[in-house]
Amino acid sequence: MGKRLLTLLGAASALSVTVGAGLSGAQAAELKVMFQGDPYEITIITDVAKRFEAANPGTTVQLINTPHDAYNEKIGAAVSAGSLPDILQLDAPFLANYVWSGFLQPVGDLLDKALVDDMTASNVAQGTYPIDKALYAIGLTDSTVALYGSRKQLEELKIRIPTSVDDAWTRDEFEAALKTLSTAPGVKWPLDLFRSYGTKTEWITYAYEPILVSMGCDVIDRTSWKATGTLDGKACVDATTEMQNWVKQGWVVPQSAGQNQFYAEGRPAALAWGGHWFYAEANAKMGDDVVVMPLPKFGEKGVSPNGTWIWSVAKTASDPAAAGKFLSFMLQDPAYREAYKAHAGFPGLKSFAAASPLYADKGAMAVAFEQAGKSAVARPPHPAYPTITLAFQNAMTNIFDGADPQAELSKAAKKIDDDILDNDGYQPFGQPE
């Protein structure tokens, strides 16, 4: 998950670039690389390819830039046409679906061993298929969501500022803070949950599922792989009813208000439930007044999300070894890393974290990086994830708009279970009844 969900890149474009992967002329390969990203990502990936060519002439790669919002559909079209690219980017929670569908091959033996050893535990988790435990994807970055506030405002209102994951606000403290902030001078809304990202975006599952998990439930049981009795069980109904109440109290920035109310003129939103990428934007406007806090502990422990856009190799790749060399070069390229560092990229490699003062000990985002090791929970690693996330997105949108939580969650759970049943349990994930 990253800032890409905010960006529409327009029509897909294909850039033909000649690159090399440390291969001799006799080993030359032709690679196709499909990806999406912000403009700076398109630029740096293209530049890396050119540097790769300068060092190792003879191998050709075609860069296929695809709009974020149409990405999964483009993958499906490529599969139908029998033209999957050799290397493809994918959003981490969709990995299980891609592997189960037979699109990908393991990359552990294709990449430089030092690079694989450098991965954080959270990065390994986002790229691993739960059935065979093999690594199918890797990224320079991972992601998280944190709670942002104004240090000056919180101190003036005598609201405690947590400094570590273990020190996070409790459920009662969080709601007490919202109540206090609701009456503070100049505050129109105590909390921005970024409903402005839209009603059908991955943000809803990514950012809100951790609240459910912290409260003792989930969108699906991760052992039986059934949603009925879990998503529509009492714990999830209570959790979503509580979240609905935040909206009813007028505490949450409405979708119609647009984005970035946290640092807009007058700061109408006191807190922001924002992705790691949001820090750079807020800091540019508010400077050192921005304070980054861990997500609250709604139950016994806090829970945070992970997962972002990662790199994989298609099972049909024309030259898997060349594909692995290309990815190894790109992910270790200094300029590639600097580009992501400049945009507050959340470290997925330990060496990248060490070189990123923002996430280092005492850094402004240190508590966000701490979450990756202590409280990150991946979205359900199941082939039915596309159905799971869409069903949950629709349910949460309707609940926030005032619909009955029990009815909406039961409807969503049935859609998920029906999809799994229709696919015979997505074996070997589970046996159909």
From TrEMBL:
Pfam families: SBP_bac_8
Intracellular or extracellular location(s): Periplasm
Claim: DNA-binding is one of the keywords in the record: no
Xref: InterPro entries: Bact_solute-bd_prot1 (IPR050490), SBP (IPR006059)
Swiss-Prot/TrEMBL keywords: Cell membrane, Lipoprotein, Membrane, Palmitate, Periplasm, Signal
CDD domains: PBP2_TMBP_like
Signal sequence bounds: 1-28
Family membership noted in the UniProt record: Belongs to the bacterial solute-binding protein 1 family.
Protein name stated in the entry: ABC transporter substrate-binding protein
